Amino acid sequence: CLCVKMIEDEVLTLPTKRNIVLDQQERVVNEIANQGRQLNENGSGANISIPTSVVETVEMEDDTVAEDQTALLAEFERRRRARQIHVSTDDVEVKANLRQLAEPICLFGEGPAERRERLRNLISRLTDDEIAQKLRKKEEEEKKEEDAKEEVTWYHQGADELQTARVWIAQYSLPRAKERIQKLKEYVAIPEVFRTAKIQDLYRRLRATSLHCSQLGDNRPLSYCEFSPNDQMLAVSSWSGLCKLWSIPDLRLIRTLRGHSINACSITFHPQATLTQDPLMINLASSSFDGGVKLWNLESDEPIAEIEGHAPFRVSRVKFHPSGRFLASCCYDHSWRLWDLETRDEILHQEGHSRAVHDVCFQCDGSLCATAGMDSYGRVWDLRTGRCIMFMEGHLKPVLTVDFSPNGYHIATGAEDNLCKIWDLRQIKNVYSVAAHQNLVSAVKFQRTEGHYLVTVSYDNTIKLWMHPVWSALKCLTGHEQKIMSADLSTDGKWIATCSYDRTLKIWSPELPN
Q: How many angstroms separate the CA atoms of 209 and 508, rounded?
């Protein structure tokens, strides 16, 4: 065997080197003896001196022999370890192990047997700590690659209808954006002392918020609630499959919408419902666990139309675009959809999240929308171009709720990690994290008109009000006996509605201005 031959050669090498040294020592001793005999013959009693260089040479040779012995013993120990190392006979696995050790997987003229022997020798030369460090570095690199793959956004080629819709959205949103910016400029022009006084008065009234009324909504848990645009009605969905309309503020039942045969997840009003929209036209949309999306008017108890294409996946949320022409739906097949209600066609099927999409909301201009994913990430999409313009990374658990501020550039998200995070589109980053609750945050809502405060609700049975932009707690409301599923704010700021797993819906009222 080659290994045995190499060992025998090195074993024979050491005596040879030692013999050379002994020969040199014997030669020096012989010279000294000859000098002694010559002195005795001459009758001289002088001392015999040994040259210093000779002594140093002998000492250096002794050190060399000791080093060679140490190196040889280390090599014997390494080869002993190598014999005890079990290396796979699978050449693919051997190459993978070499790659993990940052070594070439193949050398010129090297076969599987030589490659296997090279791996064994490499491992025998490394300590356990060095091997663990190399493997740890490889695992970190693989984790970074996996994270990078999760951040990949998928785009699909769209139809001509999608291009037409994007142009229409751009034409719709640009004037609204200009109007919003003009209002912000006018607000900033107001002297700061008056602005501060107005905000302080608002906060004073919010601190006096109390329960106005409570109503048993259904015989099953309630899942979602939303005010009508004129603040005169409240739509509530239930796990019984029923959706109900209640009057505000006395919570009298107006109508029961029957159409879902399984748990209803959400219900939302058309932006112009109860204002300029014809009561016989589409005024509401609802979704359910079986993927059904139904459209309703304000005159009938039965749906007037149904959007198909999600089954069998759950549709957790539906939201109207500010124009009312489009409807967004969040599906548990890891995508969200955009539907044109004029043609009842799906114009956008957007992937990008690696897990289910739970919530969606539109910016007030109508140019952007934000999605909350169960992959613990949020995304902001530009509907005019189709691009993901902001990736909201920071939550440690699934993101359940997202909402735009009326200023157009602040976004709030709530997640199962009990945190509420505030994001700034201008800086494209997270600007504040609020340790909001002791359980997951199920809903976040900005004040509808100016965004001076934020409302969060949680599975810890509490409703909390927060100041913007310092994010200090204004008020903590309690009253529900079980987890709160959803909340909404009226446009005029007079009411806060919550619905709960305890089957009740409640109306909370801040102190009215004088």
A: 7
- Domain ranges, residue 447: 176-510
Would you say residue 148 has pLDDT above 90?
no
In a domain, 25, yes or no: no
Whether the pLDDT of residue 46 is over 60: the answer is: no
Chain centroid to Cα 461, Å, comes to: 26
| C-alpha of 282 from chain center | 36
Strands 243-247 and 253-257, bridge-based pairing: antiparallel
Question: What is the mean predicted confidence (pLDDT) over 244-262?
Answer: 95
pLDDT at 260 over 80: yes
Three-class SS state of 106? coil
Query: Are the C-beta atoms of residues 415 and 456 closer than 8 Å to each other?
Result: no
Closest CA to 489 of 481, 498, 500: 498
Does the N-terminal peptide bond of residue 271 adopt cis geometry, omega within 30 degrees of 0? no
pTM given for the model: 0.72
Give 1's pLDDT tier (boundaries 50, 70, 90): very low
Helices (H) and strands (E) in the chain, counts: 7, 28
With respect to residue 371, please indicate whether it lies within any of the assigned structural domains.
yes
Structural domain includes residue 324: yes
**Mean pLDDT across the chain, nearest whole number?**
86
**What is 236-305 written as a DSSP string?**
EEETTS-EEEEETTT--EEEEE---SS-EEEEEE-TTTTTTS-TTS--EEEEETTS-EEEE-SS-SS-SE
Buried b (16+ CB within 10 A) or exposed e, 295-322: bbbbeeeebbeebeebeebbbbbbbbbb
Structure confidence at residue 157 as a pLDDT band (50, 70, 90)? confident
CB-CB neighbours of 412 under 10 Å: 29
> Cβ of 150: how many Cβ atoms within 10 Å?
13
CB atoms within 10 A of CB 128: 7
Question: Sheet harboring 484-489: ordered strands across?
Answer: 210-216, 504-509, 496-500, 484-489
In this structure, the number of other CB atoms found within 10 A of the CB of residue 61 comes to 17
Who has greater pLDDT, 317 or 120?
317
> In DSSP terms, which residues pair with 320 in a beta bridge?
327
Q: Which CATH number fits the domain that encloses residue 309? A: 2.130.10.10
The number of domains in the chain is: 1
The percentage of the chain sitting over the pLDDT mark of 90, rounded to a whole number, equals 65
Of 243, 246, 255, 213, which is closest to residue 227 (Cα–Cα)?
246
Strand 305-307's sheet: what is its strand order?
Answer: 264-269, 284-288, 293-296, 305-307
